[in-house]
Inverse folding.
């Protein structure tokens, strides 16, 4: 009985297993044979992967909350890697290039080689050429035409394309290689494309395997062409940048700050990317997507810049330069006919905050790529921020340094009177420099010498003071030192003196001292240094670090996260009587002196100083510095125009800036105080 019981149990078990096996086999048959095509199609449409969901960068605002740079949604063309050969991929790229070019839409191609034969690098430095070739695993000494030939062979770009098409395809393919294009890493072909391009791509989707259109945040410039040197641009991350930043969570398709505030505040403006799960079909087209991790926006940066004042500075700088050049040409190529560039800086004298910083010519961030070649070839160098990187002889605007150094040293006083007969004879007959007024100014005290910009008075003051004390005062006032502004290209400048010429293996002569005393010799300063020097004089001797970043706040809210406060760099112990003499001398310049014609009947009292700086070729540079209002100084200004002839010619730039700031109707208040209170 027992054996029969075991046997019957085994039979039942075998039967059950047989039924299960039959059901499994039947199910597999259904899945693979009967419904195989249907399930294969479903599987092909559900190839899932995760891609970054780009976070919006923080916005950049002016001091009053007006947007300078914000965000908008735009279309981006992405290429995903699918199982296609080089020929298929080249055809896809060529089609995309054609679609974009027909709609005048830029696509990414940073290959630094000309589009047409003879293929040449856009730069000549052997080191740069070698580094680029090395990045593509090519021999470092290859020429442009050899590089193109190698790339065409590498990417199997056949002769079915024209030479121009081959070069363009090679440019995109090399970019894809540098950006580690793979099945796990898609490639950004173009950003911010038009709806026409999107429509055409969608119409040809079947032949464009792996091409998808995504919506991403695009930088929007709310005042196009204004403050471009300050704001800076964002661009696709370079491979060498990625190698450094990848540990911070950047991906190879990230867009980062390249210069200006966008670069300086990258860690603040940059948000934290989220993640999106997408499903692609076998041709690489996205069929569904879902956000799996929300992106966190970056923080907003509030600048010290006053947008309306910045507009005024840029507009007036351009207008005055055009006017000087036009007048010079119309009068038969006299002084100023070659005026073509310049800079203007406006500083709050009680904080070092930059209210406006203009450099002409400039460029438009909104059309940076489209305008790049034209701007790059422009001899006036639009990309160069002259306000902080241009170094110029200050000319007679330096004379307040000499006056203050002489007063502090005790070699002159308010009662000192010198006679100017047009020629300085102390070193005669070997060296007898002239005053700019050949007939002389007669008897002058320090106020009159500043008013009339008398060279002879300051020759003698410089000689009596000595170069060491003159240099000491120069440095205390911030000339020849970086001001601390948050832009990396700021230049230091040069203070003329024995220490500097020693580096040049030259000798310092007594005649060099008197030339340095009137702002000539080897003195070279930036416009921002000149503005900060005037701010330091006007406020009684406190030199602040200049700065552009005022506050940081949460994205699209009013919550302040961080605030920046004035930083004192130097406190000059300045005698009140000496300070008064300098200020009165500068007021005399605008009321009765070399700038009086510009400020006649002007509603705001202004202290200023004109300057003319000789250059090796062409018309002299024009320099003008000022502070206002005289009774209660609030702002300091410097203006420089290359080949602007003389300071009086460019003083209208400062006049209009001052007028806009104190009597314009664009704002009711400066911080918490009504503007008219500042005029008391």
């Amino acid at each position: 009985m027992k054996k029969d019981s075991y046997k019957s149990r085994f039979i039942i078990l075998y039967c059950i297993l047989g039924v299960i096996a039959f059901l499994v086999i039947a199910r597999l048959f259904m899945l693979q044979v009967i419904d195989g095509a249907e399930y294969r199609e479903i599987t092909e449409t559900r190839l899932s992967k995760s891609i970054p969901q780009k976070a919006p960068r923080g916005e950049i605002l002016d001091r009053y909350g007006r947007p300078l740079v914000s965000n908008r949604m735009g279309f981006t063309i992405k290429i995903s890697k699918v199982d296609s050969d080089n020929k298929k991929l080249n055809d896809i790229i060529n089609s995309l290039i054609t679609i974009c070019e027909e709609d005048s839409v830029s696509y990414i191609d940073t290959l630094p080689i000309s589009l047409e034969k003879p293929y040449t690098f856009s730069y000549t430095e052997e080191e740069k050429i070698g580094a680029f070739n090395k990045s593509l695993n090519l021999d470092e000494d290859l020429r442009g035409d050899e590089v193109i030939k190698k790339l065409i062979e590498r990417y199997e770009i056949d002769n079915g394309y024209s030479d121009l098409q081959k070069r363009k395809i090679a440019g995109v393919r090399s970019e894809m290689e540098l950006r580690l294009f793979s099945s796990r890493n898609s490639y950004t072909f173009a950003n911010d494309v038009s709806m026409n391009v999107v429509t055409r791509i969608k119409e040809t989707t079947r032949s464009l395997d792996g091409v998808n259109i995504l919506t991403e945040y695009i930088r929007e410039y709310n005042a196009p062409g204004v403050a471009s040197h300050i704001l800076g641009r964002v661009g696709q991350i370079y491979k060498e940048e990625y190698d450094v930043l990848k540990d911070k969570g950047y991906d190879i398709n990230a867009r980062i700050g390249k210069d200006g505030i966008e670069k300086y505040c990258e860690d603040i403006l940059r948000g934290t990317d989220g993640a999106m799960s997408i499903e692609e079909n076998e041709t690489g087209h996205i069929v569904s997507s879902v956000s799996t991790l929300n992106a966190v926006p970056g923080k907003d940066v509030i600048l010290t810049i006053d947008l309306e004042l910045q507009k005024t500075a840029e507009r007036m700088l351009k207008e005055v330069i055009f006017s000087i050049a036009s007048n010079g040409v119309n009068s038969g190529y006299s002084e100023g006919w070659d005026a073509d560039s310049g800079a203007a800086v406006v500083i709050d004298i009680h904080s070092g905050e930059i209210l406006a910083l203009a450099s002409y010519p400039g460029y438009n961030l909104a059309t940076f790529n489209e305008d790049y070649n034209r701007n790059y070839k422009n001899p006036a160098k639009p990309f160069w921020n002259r306000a902080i990187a241009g170094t110029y002889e200050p000319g007679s605007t330096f004379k307040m340094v000499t006056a203050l150094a002489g007063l502090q040293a005790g070699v002159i006083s308010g009662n000192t009177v010198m006679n100017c007969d047009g020629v300085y004879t102390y070193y005669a007959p070997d060296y007898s420099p002239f005053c700019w007024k050949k007939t002389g100014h007669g008897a002058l005290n320090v106020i009159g010498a500043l008013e009339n910009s008398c060279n002879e008075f300051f020759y003698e003051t410089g000689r009596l003071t000595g170069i060491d004390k003159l240099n000491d005062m120069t440095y205390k006032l911030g000339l020849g030192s970086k001001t601390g502004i948050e832009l990396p290209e700021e230049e230091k400048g040069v203070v003329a003196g024995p220490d500097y010429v020693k580096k040049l293996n030259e000798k310092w002569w007594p005649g060099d001292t008197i030339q340095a005393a009137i702002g000539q010799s080897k003195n070279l300063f930036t416009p921002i240094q000149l503005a900060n020097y005037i701010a330091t004089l006007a406020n009684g001797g406190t030199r602040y670090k200049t700065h552009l970043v005022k506050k940081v706040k949460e994205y699209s809210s009013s919550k302040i996260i961080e605030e920046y406060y004035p930083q004192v760099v130097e406190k000059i112990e300045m005698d009140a009587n000496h300070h008064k003499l300098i200020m009165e001398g500068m007021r005399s310049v605008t009321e009765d002196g070399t700038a009086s014609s510009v400020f006649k009947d002007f509603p705001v009292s202004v202290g200023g100083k004109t300057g003319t700086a000789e250059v090796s070729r062409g018309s002299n540079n024009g320099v003008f510095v000022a502070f206002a209002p005289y009774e209660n100084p609030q702002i300091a200004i410097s203006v420089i125009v290359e080949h602007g002839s003389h300071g009086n010619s460019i003083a209208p730039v400062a006049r209009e800036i001052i007028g806009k700031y104190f009597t314009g109707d664009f704002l009711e208040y400066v911080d918490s105080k009504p503007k008219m209170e500042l005029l008391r």
